[in-house]
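Sample entry was shown:
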Amino acid sequence: MQLRLFHTILGLFFSILLSAKGEAAHYQVAVRQMGHHILSDFGDINSRVMPVEQEGDLFILKFEKPFSFEPLRLVDRIEETVIQAKLSEYYQVALINEATGEVVYSFEHSPDSLSNIIPCLGRDQPTAKYRLQIRFPDFQEEESAEFPLWLMAIFIVGPIVLLLMYPRKKNIEAEPLSEDSIQLGAYTYSPTKAQLSFKDQKQELTGKEGELLLRLYQDINQTVKREDLLEAVWGDEGDYVGRTLDVFISRLRKKLEEDPSVKIVNIRGVGYKLIS
């Protein structure tokens, strides 16, 4: 509940700032929010996310302290923020070890899901001091308006103060995904590999896409309510917005479109049904 409140207030700040600033601030705040999410996943809500540095269409984010990250979670966090902030869906991400200058993880995302390049999703990265670099090739900077620093401080410091006023709940570990592959018409999905196969074609699903597909599969050919899908996939994170579920459903549909017998049907006003 506390984490949801934290993200809700950050989201409000994010929305207000975007209305007052130009495209550069829009992207900078979104990238910084990615940093907050990454540290929150690591259990760090106190250390600072440094101001975003910008070099044309490249945005650079540094962190105060070392941390570890799970590539699958990292990909999800960045994609969710891009959707929420309505940024360009074409972007290239690199995590760089500050000590060695080595690119320890990188991926590329395109609006065409078949063109995504997202390697090594299952390999956790060790604790180190990293910097996040994300490039938006379609970014075009515009003139921006000034935003009061005192109001920015309220929205940044306020959520942290509120969060620290309440004890944090111990995170409940998610139930592990099944190691067995599931069959959906001509498709085969392997949760352990996060891989969807159709004949000789293979696509990687992000963590959220995989969780959503498995939840629909649990009640295949039956309607699953929207609130049940949100709870199962996003839980108490509080980092989704109204259309996030619809966006992820749309992406799953694109990845399943080769087999017309497999459909995700919208049950108006209720939820979705996976038909196979």
